[in-house]
Amino acid sequence: MADVTTENHRPVPGRVPVVRPVRPARPARPEPSWGRVLLTTVELWASRRLRHPAFLRRLVLAMVAVTAVALAGLELAGVFTASASAPRAVR
Length: 91
Fold this sequence. Notes:
Helix content: 40-55%
Number of helices: 2
Strand content: under 5%
Distance between the termini: 114 Å
Structural class: mainly alpha
Radius of gyration: 36 Å
Number of strands: 0
C-alpha cells in the first residue's frame, strides 16, 4: 500500500510549480436593515407571482368579489338612497 504523507506532495523534478495570485479578501458588507429585507422579499414575491396569468385571474376575481360585497354592504346601510333627510335644527 502507498504511503500517504506530505512526502508524496513534493513538486515534480524539472517542473515549475504554478503560483496563483491570491485575491484580497472582500471587506464585509454591513447587514441590511429589516425594512430592506422585508421590501426585497415582497418585491421578489410580487415579481414571481405577477408573471403568471392564473394568479392575475384570481387576483382580479378576488378584487371584483370584494368590491361587490362592499357595494352590497353600502346599499344595505342606505348610503346610496336619495331619501336621506337633512339633520333637524335643535330648538
